[in-house]
Each structure stands twice: as C-alpha cells, then as structure tokens.
Write a structure and sequence with these properties.
This protein is α+β, with helices and mostly antiparallel strands. The protein has a single domain, classed as Beta-galactosidase, Chain A, domain 5, CATH 2.70.98. Helix content is 15%, strand content 52%. An eight-stranded antiparallel beta sheet has the order 3-4-5-13-9-8-7-11, with helices on one face. The longest helix has 16 residues. The two termini are 22 Å apart. 35% of the residues are buried.
C-alpha cells in the first residue's frame, strides 16, 4: 500500500514480565515461548493488522499483547470515545469519523484511549512498564487508542485475530462496514 494513502497507524507490542518487544510486520518474534507475527493490510475503507500466536513449547504459557492505533486524520478538534459495551473506539473529527475494533481469541480484552500529550505519554510508559492499562474513557484532541489482550495458551496452541480501523463520513456507513468486517475477520473461510 502507498504510504501516502494511509488512514491509520497500527502497532503491536508483545509484553511479558516487564519486558516488551515491538512486533514488526512480516517478522515473527518469540516472547515467553510464544511465537508472534503480524501482517498489515491497507484497504480503501481503512487498515487492518492480523496477528498470529503459537505456543512453541510443551508447557502452558501466558502473554500480553498491546495494540496501539492512531487515526492519522486525528486533529485538535477530535473527540475520542471508548465504547462501554463493545471493543470499539469512536473518533469524531471535522466531517469524518473513525471506528477501531478488534476480533480476537484472547482471554480478555481491555481498552483505553490516551491523549497524545505529556499526561497520556506518561500513562502509556507506565502501562508498558507494569503491563496494565489506565482507564481513560474520553479525550479531546489527538489521541492513541490502546488494546491490551491477555492470552493463556496450552502447549502448541495457536490463536489469531485482527485489529482494524475504518474511516467514513456517516456513522451508519461506518457501523455497517464495522459489522461486515467483524464477520469477515471472525469467519475467514466463509467469505
């Protein structure tokens, strides 16, 4: 995909016992005996990042994976909101809005939205150090949306999922596309 047409920046970080490792697209890394790989795709509706985990050991393992999502059209007049009932984030800015969601086989999914200012960056550093999120449900201005996924994996078990962002002009259009994306990503063999 042409870098100039990007609408989102999605970054994965694997975390275990206070140590973290950035997940590079197309490269597998092993953290706590779990192999993690990510692949990104640009679409006309936005972007997605699919991820795969595999326990490479004969013992049960745990791993946390953070996904940071930045809507590149986010400006000072943007309002970012964490949805209470679902794993979706909403960003309203100018004439456009963005929704970010996740399809995952994680044991738990936590989410927060941090402002891109000193306070937000301090909270993010603390999150990476401690392996937890500090709940921040709404913010004005530029922000980053953060998912934290907890995985417990049996020996040699595989899990996967996707994080994606959608940009649009009408909320109904974005909601309909979000539902179609969740179904497509949750049931990839049934396209």
């Amino acid at each position: 995909m042409n870098e100039y047409n990007r609408t989102f920046h999605i970054q994965g970080i694997a975390w275990d016992s206070g140590k973290n490792r950035t997940l590079d697209r197309g490269k597998e890394c092993v953290v706590n005996g779990i192999g993690v790989s990510v692949e990104g795709n640009g679409e006309e509706w936005g972007e997605s990042l699919s991820f795969r985990l595999q326990n490479t050991t004969d013992k049960s393992r745990k791993l946390k994976v953070f996904f940071l999502v930045e809507w590149l059209s986010c400006k000072e007049d943007t309002i970012g909101i964490v949805s209470f009932g679902k794993d979706i984030f909403w960003n309203y800015g100018g004439r456009n809005l963005a929704a970010t969601n996740i399809v995952s086989s994680a044991d738990s999914v936590k989410k927060t939205i941090y402002p891109l200012n000193l306070k937000g960056l301090q909270l993010w550093r603390k999150s990476l150090k401690e392996g937890s999120l500090y709940y921040y449900p709404i913010t004005n201005g530029q922000n980053m949306m953060v998912y934290m996924l907890d995985f417990s994996m049996d020996p040699f078990e595989r899990k996967n999922g996707s994080v994606y962002g959608i940009e649009g002009a009408l909320k109904e259009e974005v909601i309909n596309l979000d539902e179609r994306m969740k179904n497509r990503l949750a049931f990839p063999s049934e396209k």
